[in-house]
């Protein structure tokens, strides 16, 4: 079992920045790939960013490339999502998740999920 707790969400104006954190506990954090997903009202949950275990290779949804950065600190069992140049369309509940699948972007391939943190971007 892996327990995930997100923090860092909030209300920000368009063009602003937020940093989300996801603290993990339980099984060995470094053995899992980590991902950030988001879900806006009335929409399906979608992949935003991912980072592999061991090599920390990162990959992103096209619409956030160049604005969002995912990093991980295995010593602190924490993964981060730095979000810059935020847009109103980034408004959603953001979830972190853990997967044993390499480089996955699929919701169904993530085994553990946090409770989510709200990000609201005003225009």
Blueprint (SSEs and pairs):
Elements: E1 2-7, E2 10-13, E3 18-26, E4 33-39, E5 46-51, E6 58-60, E7 68-73, E8 78-83, E9 92-99, E10 112-113, E11 117-122
Parallel strand pairs: 2-11
Antiparallel strand pairs: 1-3, 3-8, 4-5, 4-9, 5-6, 7-8, 9-10, 9-11
Low-confidence sequence ranges:
none
Rg computed from alpha carbons, rounded to a whole number of angstroms? 13 Å
Give a short account of the largest sheet: 7 strands, mixed
Quantity of strands, as a count: 11
Estimate the global geometry from the Cα principal axes. globular
What letter string, H or E per element, gives the SSE order? EEEEEEEEEEE
The mean pLDDT is: 95
What share of the residues does DSSP label as strand, in percent?
A: over 45%
The termini sit apart by 40 Å
Classify the secondary structure makeup into a structural class: mainly beta
Count of DSSP-assigned helices: 0
Helicity range: under 10%
């Amino acid at each position: 079992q892996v327990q995930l707790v997100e923090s860092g969400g909030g209300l920000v104006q368009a063009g602003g920045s937020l940093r989300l954190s996801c603290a993990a506990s339980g099984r060995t954090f470094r053995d899992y790939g980590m991902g950030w997903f988001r879900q806006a009202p009335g929409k399906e949950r979608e992949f935003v960013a991912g980072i592999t275990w061991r090599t920390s290779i990162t990959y992103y949804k096209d619409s956030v490339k160049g604005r969002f950065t995912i990093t991980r600190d295995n010593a602190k069992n924490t993964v981060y999502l730095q979000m810059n140049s935020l847009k109103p369309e980034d408004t959603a509940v953001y979830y972190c998740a853990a997967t044993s699948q390499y480089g996955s972007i699929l919701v169904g391939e993530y085994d553990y999920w946090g409770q989510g943190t709200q990000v609201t971007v005003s225009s």
